[in-house]
Amino acid sequence: MAFFDLHCHPGLKTLFLPQDGRQFSVWSNLNPKDHLIGDILESQCSLKMLMQEGDINLICLTLHPPEIGMIDQFLLKIGAATIYKKFLSRERLRDMITLTSSYQQTFGQEFANISAAPRPEDQIEARKKVKFLKNWNEYNVADFNTLHIVFNLEGGHTFYDLNNRVNDIEQVVINFNSFINKGFKVLYFTLAHLTPNEFITHAYGNKLLTKGPLLPKGIGITAFGKRMIENAYAKKVFIDVKHMSLVSRRIFYLFRKKYFPHMPIIASHIGLAGESWTVFRKDRNMIINPVRKSYGYKLTWLKNRGRLEGTDFYPLSINLYNEDIREILDSNGLIGISLDLRILGGKDKTGTLQNDFYSHEEYELLTDPDADQKIQTLFEQFETGHIDNGNTTLNLVHPEPQDIEDSKEADAELNSIFAPKKKTDESPDYRYHVRLVLNQLVRIWEIAGWYGIPAPWNNLCIGSDFDGMIAAIHCFRNSTEAATFAEALKTELELELPNYPGIDLTATEITDRLMFQNAKAFLERHF
Hints:
The structure is a single chain. The protein is α/β, with parallel strands linked by helices. It contains 14 helices and 14 strands. The longest helix is centred in the last third of the chain and has 21 residues, at about 430-450. The radius of gyration is 22 Å and the shape is globular. It starts with a strand and ends with a helix.
């Protein structure tokens, strides 16, 4: 069986040392011998790992210069410990934070690292190579000595111009097009990531970091964002809804449906919220303790019980609601299931309260009785390029008491990452984590049925987010474990399918489609 990944970051961990030959090779594996304690910091998809088992020859590789707001916190906290000096250089990080290195420069460095040949110490067989596809007919499905790569671009900030901002939107478009014009196949573009940007309001999505630089600001998609979406579509690059805020997603769905109805939607590395987006309505009484702060709203959700016994969904709006899935399936799009334990609902115990954060404008719109009409009005403004995106200014001057609690939560998360972990061949949570993935698949199938949409078995794949600083599920910790995960998933499907007589595929058929066939067919259709 062959395997595919819609979203993985082999190059990200090559960026945190000086880019003068001392940086890590994209082929090398970071492991406990390097003193990088904790799954998040170990390699999950180096090029060596991707080719190790001889069962992966096609991936969608993510290019992503990390945002200043992430570097300034997470990586410098790691760098404060001398044990991590082999992994990163504080001087290099300071350069990235202080704009000595621009996002465009970092983007170019990551691409150069991905393109570099293996080093002698990487011990790569001479017959192993990578190929950046320019034409689909260059893909040889039978050649497992070649890793065939198509690209995706994560974060509109990647293409900022001078001083890492939008001074001239047309220069930003030129920056985007200059990479597209290299001729390599680029499948999709993710406008948002984890920090505020000049294109679109993002969804809050990371417990590891101090909240300030990660808090959503404003509302919806800006005129700059509209220009970037239209340009991407003109270049035959699809749009990924991952990391968009809920209001931004809803505006995007209306825009795509009206102006680009033949362009499928990508949801590259997602989990489900396990709810309808009507969850914000006050008459449903689902929001716990919303508090208006200087920076926006903080509120709490209760984890939603999963479809499979013993599982849960992760209720934050970075995950997708039932109606999101309807929109993606209606577009005949592609959904990549994340392997991030938190996103799949497995990080905390059932009944655990989950903090979420929204901008003032977005929360107040979503809880308004006329929310649907107000989103329609925002879309109509967006069409004309004159949308009011609200207040996009961060106010970090006066921390509030609750903010200090959030900081303690972030520190606790980091401590749990750095704590020594005993490695075993099989985690006691192995089967539970398989069921977390299956829970997502079954619910997506149910949602399709609720809306009268064809079953989703042609629209699902894996979008691992490997090496994107995630804590991966124990049944699929890195790219070398694709085959064992597939067998475990197939076994679990065989046990569960009798409970779902409406599913007319076998466990083997579902697994094969998820792990490879759907993505290959999607690329064949569109490339």
